[in-house]
User: What shape does this take?
Amino acid sequence: MSAHINHVVVVLQQVSLEEVPAKKLRLTKPSKSAALHIDLCKATSPTDALQYLLSFARRPVEAESVEGVVRILLEHYYKESDNSVRLKIASLLGLLSKTQGFAPDCIVDDAINTLNNEKSHQVLAQLLGTLLIIGTQLPDKIAVVQRLIDVACKHLSSTYFGVRNKCLQLLGCLGTVDKPLSKETDAGPGAQTSHVRDVQSVISDYFQDQDPRVRTAAIKAMLQLHERGMKIQQTIYNQACKLLSDDYEQVRSAAVQMVWVLSQLYPESIVPIPSSNEEIRLVDDSFGKICHMVSDGSWVVRVQAAKLLGSMHQVSPHFLEQTLDKKLMSDLRRKRTAHERAKELYASGEFSSGRRWADDAPKEKVDTSGVNLIDSGACGAFVHGLEDEMYEVRISAVEALCSLAQSSPSFAEKCLDFLVDMFNDEIEEVRLQSIHVLRQISTHITLREDQLDTVLAVLEDSSRDIREALHELLCYTNVSTKDCIQLALVELLKNLTKYPTDRNSVWKCLKFLGARHPTLVLPIVPELLSTHPYFDTPEPDMDDPAYIAVLVLVFNAAKSCPTMPALFSDHTFRHYAYLRDSLSHLVPHLRVRNLSALESAQNFLQDSLVRVSALQNLETPGAQDLLEFTIRDLLRLGELQTELAGSADFCATYLHCQLLLTKALQEKLWTMAVPLCLKQNWLSFDDLEFLYSGLETQQIATIHNIRLQAKALQLILTARSKPGVDRVLGACEKFLQDVESFQRLFMTELPHFQDSFVEKLLELMPRLTTCKPLDLVKILQTTLRQSGFIHLKLPEQIHRASATIIEPTGESDNPLKFTTGLVVALDIDATLEHVQDPQTSVKVQVLYPDGQSHIIHPKPGDFRTPGPGRVRLITQVYLSHSAWTEACQIEVRLLLAYSSSSSKQSASKPAWNESMGGLPTSESCIESTIHLSKPVKVFIMPKPARR
Amino acid sequence: MPDIKVTPLGAGQDVGRSCILVSIGGKNIMLDCGMHMGYNDDRRFPDFSYVTQNGRLTEFLDCVIISHFHLDHCGALPYMSEMVGYDGPIYMTHPTKAICPILLEDFRKITVDKKGETNFFTSQMIKDCMKKVVPLNLHQTVQVDEELEIKAYYAGHVLGAAMFQIKVGSESVVYTGDYNMTPDRHLGAAWIDKCRPDILISESTYATTIRDSKRCRERDFLKKVHETVERGGKVLIPVFALGRAQELCILLETFWERMNLKAPIYFSTGLTEKANHYYKLFITWTNQKIRKTFVQRNMFEFKHIKAFDRSYADNPGPMVVFATPGMLHAGQSLQIFKKWAGNEKNMLIMPGYCVQGTVGHKILNGQKKLEMEGRATVITGTLDVKLQVEYMSFSAHADAIGIMQLIRMAEPRNMLLVHGEAKKMEFLKDKIEQEVFVRCISCYMPANGETTTVVTNPSVPVDISLNLLKREMALGGPLPDAKRPRTMHGTLIMKDNSLRLVSPEQALKELGLSEHQLRFTCRVQLHDPHSDTDTLGRIYTHLKSVLKSYSIQHVPDGTVIVESIVIKVTSSAEEPNLKVILLSWSYQDEELGSFLSTLLKKGLPS
Assistant: This one.
């Protein structure tokens, strides 16, 4: 064997050596075909020829020389006696006809001709494959397609399965959608009707082929026809159903698909039930049949069947509900399922389950003739699917359940027990999936106490993913009684003590639970807050997470239940005030005594903006103070009112930029303060543009306007500090380009920019382009002073992309020790909000004490989406460094990368940096990224490697 | 007609003592060789005298197959092979071979050492017996001799349990042993391919039961254990050493892992430890989850489950203990039970069925005070049962639906039910015969010693020469009808125990014979006023109009040739109007020839 390989390698080397002069020739007007021709002529044995062809196939051929190459290949094809070489040539023909820009019409005839003389089955199959490729390249040439179909029909009777396979494939891909196969029907009906058969019946003949591969190919071809928009005839249905009991799994697998397709095409037509004279809808019939396949012998088929069940929404509810029904029986007596028993126990008020043996003893006797063991169609399909050995089947069954339950509330109610059971699956993926599914259908359902009990048991799971999914589920769950609320609270508190890291998630969960069930919370408030009608109870510890959790539940319930605050004791109100301030995202605003009713935050925001807009000139005394106060108010508002956080922050940042700019302009002396202001501004601009989502073009234009102002200022600064015409000239050109691009981008928005810097600039544009740099600078200076202040109009909804690093907390005093030169993994756990496309844009930055910084791209799999708009990043970053003498802190933070107009950005930045000369480059701002989170400090300690 | 005979020596309309004799294609096979738990006398073992009155079994049996290691399937094996005498091969899967001797040894110890029986097999006999065992793998086809082959399929139930396909020529029998169609925490579901056996011999323990989802039971079990442990109680789970014990261990182990629980779980030492060792080794026989995760961690290397020591029973705090035996009738489980019974915080979980008369059975029936008899070492007198008692059935047999599922998978021609109660079998038998399967199935349920005979229709393989086949193919119509039977001409040569179908020419050549032409001639008299040539012409046109798709030639020398049939016309000198038509055809064209003769006898149309 090794000798053989060596031989091949040697041959390959020789070939590549020989190829070298050929390559040189190409410069002069070589054709690849010529080289090939020479090679093929040189070949003495079939193996040699095969080697040449193999190496030839490795390099692409230009579209114009394809035809020549094809001719040469064909020529050799006819001469060649060895099957394998001919096979390779045939496959090369197919490969070549796929070349971009080459129209394979011209080789159709030749390719078909080769078919006629071919004896070898393998080569024949390959040639048909080539024709298929050619045919798919030329879907519009009806004549060609027609010829190819004729060829395929002719070869269908081949004895070799491969040839039949390819023919069927060809028919499936090219078979005409609307016309019968032969054109003769148009010419003279009647005469040749016996020969004219449409593609479908031709293909369906092969459903009974002796070779399973051909049967599969036939079904696949039929499915292909369906995909191309041909309406499959209903007569196929019975044939397809027969194939469901085929011996071979790939046939069954394809047949299941076929039956499914037909059930979607003819859901309402009626089919008879064999061995009885009843009739049912086709979709119900096929549903029953596919359900049957859920207990197939091959797991591939089972997965497929379970998946397809999920998309059969038209099935009658009566059939659907059967899938969860399995008539239990024990020694011929009817037995109730554990689910039914649990329900009855619950209904009777007794809450205990079988203490005694034979508690589940079967009662009534079953009529033996009434028990149907196998032909029950849909019966228990999902029960089987959910108990399957392979987790792939179980997962698809869970998914199918989900999709069916979403369209049918009554089914959702029924499948609840089964989904809850899946919480105990042995594979975590399945557990997780079933929790997610339950969340998705939770709008339809109300959990009973015993069901909730089972659900809550999972809260102790050691997997964080599971717990968080469950919290998410509880956020959306409806429960029926106050006991349920209490139960949930108790379990959540237990969870909190066991896994303190779940704090945020548990609080959030209780927030929704409270907001959803105010009336259920009301009766248990005194108990929860441990108040007493006569006695004062000790004031609970405000820092206890469990107490906070209870308060979050109560306050959120109180929001829509005005009678509740009357039950609070004094310290509760104090705690409310504190929590409203510190955990404003969890505690809603309540209309309670002692607290002056605030005006709607929205109004406040608008008022502030109106107040600011009253300012015409920022240089008037007091105007800057007003701006400063407004900025402070807005920032605070953002903290208090999470819904408005985005808008408020956005306004505040904008005003801040404006303020800085004004301050810079007021400096008559152009001292160092100005560049500093500028520097801060640059950071804010990027934030403004890229950190907020929901911005409209007008706002973006406003930002660009102020950015232009800043650039103008910078230009002036350059001109003043470095008197050198060359440099200023370059900067001026750059600036003019920026102005033009602004005009280009925001043409439609220009009417809004009355009296602004940009408007004035555009008026002066003809003068600017002609005048000298120094004049330009002067003009800019005056324009800057004169230009007014653009008022920001708020769009509907602005969200600020934000990130919080939950772990590492940065509070640990114990350094993370690792050996120098090796790596240490640091677990990072962060939540991202309103970040678009986090997989590509979010990076982790690690900043070492020596100023080195690393950027790490987390894997796409590290991002999880627990809810809409929120993303969770759980990843590991690898740190490494050389030895230090003592433990130092490194900083870890998240960055948001952006790409749009970054070229402009990067082009302008170096210029500025140069001009500022002495200033150090900003230590943490990496190009095209903005800070997304606050940095977290981690203590690390590299130890010297031991020798 | 050839037939297959099946005779249960045990397990016919009964549970226990599985032993079934099968004669197929001249081979005799013994399926399983078990003992009966309910008897202590001779009825305990199958009656081997049915096979032969005296002398060894070797010459009457071609092989013995053991489906799994439960004693009711392998308990009589050393007795049969060493005491009755059998030297042929014994087939079983690898795990069965590993675990079987442990159980046999245990069984022997209890019978001989505890009960003091004599005339029982010895340890040496078990060893000798195991030497005769040939282990095999799943889906491995083993050729017992030239004609007999066996193949094992996965059966679930317990570690190493297998279903066996026994095949002689085209006749085959599938024996399921005990199997389980629903997977559990440590084993997968039984699976078989569509092998279409002549007989499917299936167990029918749960013939009249349709079971509830396993998940509910598991959840209940876990919840009960968890609650008890949380409030500081102790949980006692009496188990048999093998099978369910491992499943429950896995269940608790994963639950402990998931829920991060700290309470200790103990496993009584001895037999179970050894068994766990084998479970660790035979990972490939377990379910998907364990198979896939064993690279990281072998699920049977328990983290939370430790070996039990007698002194631990008095430790304070919560704990879970698995102890043998399963019915609380003796040994460690009973001792622990006595210690813990007085505390209502504790819990007893019975995972299986208890025989009447055992402590387990009494407790399950709700008895609150137990009379403790016997040894002075433990508490005598009455014992108050205050602890909670739960019953959790985890059984690994296929239920009625499972059996049906297997039938659908294997598509047998006949069913034969064993290993179940007669009444229950009756029900299942009716059901099987009613249900519409791909082919109609007749179902049998023989009692012990009763022989069921099933007539088979074995196909006889014949070698056909390729040339002949191609020639016939060329004659044939379009391909899609390939499944339809078609007649073909050839010569069947039976020589040296082989059958060959060859073309007649080749047969002649091989046999050194020359070909003889066989021609039939026939004269038909016909009144026709025309001349000979004219008559011939008229015959020609007549035939031409009747036989449209045949080649008919009018040869100038005065004959008409239809295919190979020659037709001549002569007239006698004395009666010119009476024409004699001479027909001659070869043997191969007999059909056409006789048709022509009758046609011409009717005369020509005027």
Notes: Chain B touches chain A through 60 residues (CB under 8 Å). Residues 94-114 of chain B form the longest helix (21 residues).
